[in-house]
Specification:
Mean pLDDT of chain A: 79
Order of helices and strands of chain A: EEHHEH
Low-confidence stretches of chain B: none
Strand order of the largest sheet of chain A: 1-2
Helix content of chain B: 10-25%
Shape of chain B: globular
Distance between the termini of chain A: 61 Å
Largest sheet of chain B: 6 strands, mixed
Largest interface: A-B, 33 and 41 residues
Oligomer: heterodimer
Shape of chain A: globular
Low-confidence stretches of chain A: 1-10, 98-102
Largest sheet of chain A: 2 strands, antiparallel
Structural class of chain A: mainly alpha
Number of helices of chain B: 4
Radius of gyration of chain B: 18 Å
Chain lengths: ~100, ~240
């Protein structure tokens, strides 16, 4: 398919052209044609996902091409997740300063 | 609680946007930003930049680039009797664990008394941010992958609030007026939080993003934690 660029007027841009601009903007190179094809596929999936989010938000927020557009959801999680295994269970203690008791 | 609060508007309170790169140290960056902001507020905009790398290297496990928690950063700060400056112990952001070099430079530029967890209540969190300063929160980062600008309206389906995996600094809040769908309808307002991320200034809204307030979006109320640089004194004033 083709995607309409948000910034360059009414001319539709081919997916590969959008991907080429992404590679230039974020300095991405891929080791071989197979890897390029895989990343292009992920990029297309992510653009569709961004478009869905954009529609859900009805103009409140903008979603689109970001530095993470060639990563799967899992890869994005692995890149930035602060800890594996989710959050620990914690209990809260409310401290009363007046009575000095927890 | 005021209607809006934005600590970005007070000069010297917030340090420049950091970029954690390939190091999973959002927890350390968020904690550092919290300490820097509170220190600047306490000492009237005398800004400091503390060492994130010290937090990464000197934690109990010494491998902070593989992930951590904000409270570990505060425990490290307490154990080290403060933090050295970013300049003296610069950020390397690599995966290889380095030996803690905190003792080499003894000149601490900021320290904390203790740290606290706030209630799971967005009104109480807003009140605290407005009267005391920025705090750290840990959220589900799922919707941030494709985010560019605006107010993220998350649902429990597309951003599970029970699963939180990314720590950031909460620096303010406000309301965005949304035009009504027809002239007869009143304009709506979407309340939002302003959050400081650690993925560089090129990401999002110059490194910041906004998330809908009042709905526990992406689990923002799960771990609202802040250091204390002083005993609670008179409230400060956040720029509206």
């Amino acid at each position: 398919g083709s995607f309409r660029s948000q910034d360059s007027g009414p001319q539709p841009l081919e997916l590969k052209e959008v991907f080429r601009l992404f590679q230039i903007q974020y300095n991405r190179t891929y080791s071989d044609p197979a890897e390029y094809a895989r990343r292009l596929d992920i990029f297309a999936h992510n653009l569709a996902q961004a478009q869905r989010l954009q529609e859900q938000h009805e103009g409140a927020a903008q979603f689109g091409v970001t530095p993470f557009s060639d990563l799967t959801e899992e890869e994005f999680g692995q890149l930035h997740q602060r800890a594996a295994g989710g959050a620990p269970n914690m209990s809260r203690k409310v401290w009363s300063q007046e009575r000095g008791q927890s | 609680t005021p209607a809006s609060c934005d600590w970005r508007k007070k000069l010297g309170v917030l340090s420049p946007i950091r970029n954690q790169g390939n190091c999973k140290c959002c927890w350390a960056v968020a904690a550092a930003g919290n300490i820097e902001a509170l220190w600047a507020i306490k000492y009237d905009s005398k800004s400091v930049e503390v060492s994130v790398q010290e937090l990464v290297d000197c934690g109990r496990c010494g491998n902070g680039c593989t992930g951590g928690w904000v409270w570990e950063a505060f425990i490290t700060t307490l154990n080290n009797s403060g933090l050295v400056s970013e300049e003296n112990y610069p950020f390397k952001g690599n995966y290889k664990p380095q030996r803690c070099q905190a003792k080499r430079s003894k000149e601490k530029v900021a320290w904390i008394q203790d740290f606290i967890m706030l209630p799971e209540d967005e009104n109480a969190i807003a009140r605290h941010v407005a009267t005391q300063g920025p705090i750290t929160v840990t959220i589900n980062m799922q919707l941030l992958q494709h985010y560019k600008s605006g107010v993220i309206k998350a649902t429990d389906t597309n951003c599970d609030p029970r699963y939180v995996d990314h720590s950031v600094l909460l620096v303010g809040f406000g309301k965005k007026q949304v035009a009504a769908s027809s002239p007869r309808r009143p304009t709506r307002a979407t309340p939002y939080w302003i959050l400081k991320n650690s993925w560089g200034a090129d990401w999002g809204e110059q490194g910041y993003f906004r998330l809908q307030r009042g709905k526990n979006s992406c689990g923002i109320t799960k771990y609202p934690i802040t250091a204390r640089v002083d005993k609670p004194v008179k409230p400060v004033s956040c720029p509206p």
